[in-house]
Amino acid sequence: MGEPYEVKFRLSRRRNSVPRSRALLHSVLGAWDIGQDVREVAELILSELVTNALRVRVPNDRLVGVRIVRLLEEGVLRLEVSDAGDGKPEVRKPEEDETCGRGLLLVKALAHRWGYEGRSCGIGKTIWAELKAPDLVSARDGTAVAACTVRAGQSVWERGAWHLVRSVDTQQQASDGLTVVLRFDDGSAMRIDAAEPLTIRAANATP
What is the pTM of this model? Predict the structure, then answer.
């Protein structure tokens, strides 16, 4: 298993925590260059998991924990939601006139695999779901470097695709920061802080 890259946050037990979790996930997956199709499925799955966690009775109004992990070697995106409640999650088959109870049924249908486990420290459980993310497989084949080290002739993984770098410029900012401007072979360009990480590949690497 390759080294995971992860983001963690906690949510209060309020209704607006569901859209907040979606917004945070959307931001994280955008930064990781995860494609739109996977992103939409991941947001739907996380919404269902957080909704279920908020319905669980817990002591002292405990927070809901969320962990988002990318496993580059496996090309997998993993979502985890933890709560302090008892019991175990069960997939239900609600009647047609029931308005709830379909959350895990939907997760099971959309995820590559899913499951649950007891929390290693503290009370409660963690429900997890994994999605195949082809963009992570592509990113795996590159090397993570600071933007200021990128050179013309290398390819940069950006927005789900490799872009050949035609030229590199640096610009000094008033705040003493340094910005890197990358211009690509297709005519597009991007501006990025010099210390921000980018995934690169040599120009003669196999696509």
Answer: 0.64
